[in-house]
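Lecture 7 notes: from sequence to structure.
We start with the chain below.
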Amino acid sequence: MADTPHEERSSNNRTLLVVGLILVLLSINGILLYMQRQAKNELEESKKETEVKNAELEDQINKFMALKKDFERQSQELQAMGMTNDSLEARIAAVSADLLQLRAFRASSFSVADQKKFRARAASLESIIRKKDEEITRLRADNKQLFGENTDLKNKQNEMTDSLTNLQSKRQVLAEKVTLAQRLQTSMMKINIITTKGKEKEDEDAEYKAKRVEKIKITYALARNDVADQGTKTVYLRLIEPDGSTLTQGGGTMTINGQDQPYTASQEILFTNSNTPYTFVFAKGSAYKEGKHVVELYSNGFQIGTGTFTLK
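Predicted structure tokens for the same chain:
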């Protein structure tokens, strides 16, 4: 049985409805697929952007670490030249603070504005480092020149010191020669005794009886010396007994060859370079020992005469 017109219209309507639903579903599915792809692309772009930001952040951290090392190097170079620079120490502290701030961005957002800020700061610090390196190079050259000049001055000073030392040594040698040339010498020495009765006895062999001796009389004269200064001189008498001991009643010590030596008596004389005779009279105050006695005369640290007499 053939379909009626009404049935045919209903069938067509259902077909159109199904096709419409299919088209709607296809459209929805397309939209969802587009949105899924869009979300994936945005996620990938966000991931890439994060990776770029992280790479930029690590690059900035490494750059500021290098800047800090450069400032520390410059500070050490100045210290090696004996200099200090407070501004460099302040720079090091400031860069350390920058590093703390940059590392903190690892846990937060490192914005484009932050990136621009730290790029500009790094460029400024690099310029400061270049200028400071140029300054250090000039200072090192100046120090090298000053060191050379100082070395030359020290060498000249050492040469002058050596010359002065040699001059002083020569002066000392000359002074010693002059002192030696000024040394007085006896041209004559005679030893007599004065007895207990007050009589002076003279013997060519200078031999006397001990029990009769009360005083010893030494007469001497000084040889002509045109180098020696004329004027008052101190002459020391040293009377040595047979046992080697020095009689020191009323005496003291004198300096001979840098050592203190005892003397028996001393006197002040006026040296006129005219062979004038001078006299020592010494009284022991007790009995004299028998045997050979030695008489020595000294002046200005030198022995100027010697003689002997014997008591029996």
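Points to note: The longest strand covers residues 186-195. The mean pLDDT is 85.
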